[in-house]
Amino acid sequence: IEVRDLFASLPARRRFLRATRSETQAVARVIADYALAYPEVAFRLTADGRSALTAPGSGDPRDAVAAVHGAEVAAALLPARAERAVAVEGEADPARCEVVGLVGPPSLHRASRAAIHVVANGRAVTARALLPAVELGYEGLLPGGRHPMALIRITVPPDQIDVNVHPQKAEVRFRHERLVFATVQAAVRAALTVAPHLAPVAPDLASMPSPAATGDQQAPTAWAGFEFAATPNSPTTGREVIAGARTASYVEPSPAPSTPGRDSEGVSVLRPLGQIEGTYIVAESSDGMVLIDQHAAHERVLYEEVRARLAAGDRPSQPLLDSALVTLSAPQAALIAGGTRDLAAIGWEIEAADGAAVIVRAVPAALAGRDVTRALTDYLERLDAEERLSGPDRAAATLACRAAVMAGDRLDATQQRALLDALAKCDTPPTCPHGRPTMLRLSRAALERSFARR
């Protein structure tokens, strides 16, 4: 199909067209959506004599993504899949939903939602109501104000979708929207949980083009896959791994290997070398150097520990010998009143007193031994500032942030090793619960290029 002189016979319509550049961008968006919705169809868009998009029509969605977003992005995307069916009262057939697609790792994000593409029953749609389902799958994994990249293909029975909502058929309504929402979220979360983690990294100098590079050559995206391997018999809980930093209850981990290598499954093992300003752990890997933010890393360890206990119905609480009366500001008291259940779930036992005062009878185990007044007020300040998470996750993330080892805390070699081992056992080690990266990687190739060794 070739289109020329669009609206040539409708001068009134042409009068209200925007600038050529804006209209070209609009056309490119439409072609991109069609290329992603129909990967089996070849598309080619030429604008001002330049090839703007070429989709091969191979039938592979990853090839379509490569045509729209680039080969490096396409190669990094993770396969996602989920299928659910629920019985519907009064109907013989259950409601069904199948979701397949490709989602970006947490290190791959954009400033807007424009890179989230949704296809429903073979139709590219806007689906504003489903975008939060995609982003909820990344909850706690992305920096603030950033959005993931994803291609989500939804398939439901024809009688469970209404495509006649928008004149351009750009929006749809699902008969069982909650089912679709939950299936999309499950597919995204499953892909991020089981796939190898791609950690945010420092710019890889070895991947940058030489000064002589010309033409359309582009440097590969500056991130790469990386995983930790845990050392057997190392401390497994958040309190154990860093207990020695502030108390004498440190549990001795297994010795660190003298040189980094690979475990039985071929995963890179880290060897801690020391600290920078008591904040960053310097570690050697089998293919270069890694910097770990000790606070962000310990946050991730404690956060997953608290969530696991919540899922098991365990409330890690430390009763106080003498209850503490804490006077709060009115906003802090209102914050407690509105989140009593979530606070109790992570170990706080608080009763209202006169005015804005409260009586604290127990604190989370992770905060045991701290000054009660300061621990509570600091916790509430962090809780109020937390905007990315909600409910129990918000309470758990705030507790992890407050209990984690801080910047400036000196850790000896065994404590550093214990933290790296605990981080290795996390489901999502690359980021803290707030989406900040826990590690940066500099490959051996980048080091050699920096020192003119290659």
Structural commentary:
By secondary structure, the protein is an alpha+beta fold. The chain has 3 domains: 11-58, no CATH class; 77-195, Ribosomal Protein S5, domain 2, CATH 3.30.230.10; 222-454, formyl-coa transferase, domain 3. Helices cover 32% and strands 22% of the residues. The strands form 7 sheets. The protein has a 5-stranded mixed sheet with strand order 3-4-9-6-7, sandwiched between helices. Strands 14-15-16-20 form a 4-stranded antiparallel sheet. Helix 2 runs antiparallel to helix 3 (61-69), helix 8 packs across helix 12 and helix 8 (294-311) crosses helix 13 (413-424).
Name the features.
single chain, 3 domains, 454 residues, formyl-coa transferase, domain 3, Ribosomal Protein S5, domain 2, 5-stranded mixed beta sheet, 4-stranded antiparallel beta sheet, 20 strands
